[in-house]
Amino acid sequence: MNNVFCLVPILILATTWLYFLTCMTPENANGSIKLTFPTSLQELRELASLLESYYNLNSYYVIVLFCSAYLYKQAFIIPGSVFMNVLAGALFGVVKGFPLCCLLTAVGATCCYLMSRTFGSSVLHKYCPAQIKFLQEKVNKNADRLVYYLLFLRLFPMSPNWLINLLSPIVGVPLHLFFLTVLIGLMPYNFLCVQAGGMLASLRNLDDVFSFTTLLQLATIAVVALGPSFLLKRNRTFRDSFQEVDTTTETKKSK
């Protein structure tokens, strides 16, 4: 339990860095940029408009500011990644914003993974025993095809990614597989959000981004990702059955 308190200095340091970036922001024609995470489309539009006007003159600063805020939200599992992805589309466009968001998502989730592994084991075992047991069983069951199962979890639109980030190190998901499946598995989600950023002015609500059709498409992609897993399982079952028959035949011959 005491390990959790070690997170406090890390949180303070990260928050101080964001505050420092805010204080270093000079004023422009539209006023000073304030580091506030948007919670609505209206706030997002205002922030995007302000950052766009400043990006033309101070692009490196805006990139550092955006990356720092994105990693902060991902590492400390603060809700609202959709707003950051849409903001990336509005600021950088799809060509630059999409790969940037994919990379930041993977790096931020990995920071969460490392902090959970280092400081959160005892707390998670105390407050999330059922979730740990469930995920542990799934990981063990899919051990020989774990990458496909992890991709399915990331691609499926209803998966609680924040919880998966926290529990993955506890149930023994290797770091390299974790990073890779976050990077690839969340690409469709990130692309949709970043693409919507280019149409930010015309967006009425988030339902325009995540319509029923869009969610169905993401779910279909997730199911397709499980295809190799089923093939591997079927092949292993066939191989085991064949070996069992072969062993039985050899036993009869020896008699």
From TrEMBL:
Domain (VTT) ranges: 78-197
Subcellular location: Membrane
First-listed, main subcellular location of the protein, grouped into a coarse class: membrane
Keywords from the named record: Membrane, Signal, Transmembrane, Transmembrane helix
InterPro entries referenced in this protein's UniProt entry, alphabetically: TM41A/B (IPR045014), VTT_dom (IPR032816)
Transmembrane segments: 55-72, 84-116, 171-189, 209-232
UniProt GO cellular component terms: membrane
Annotated membrane topology: Multi-pass membrane protein
Signal peptide boundaries: 1-29
Family membership: Belongs to the TMEM41 family.
Name the UniProt record assigns to this protein: VTT domain-containing protein
The organism of origin for this protein: Cuerna arida
Organism classification: Eukaryota, Metazoa, Ecdysozoa, Arthropoda, Hexapoda
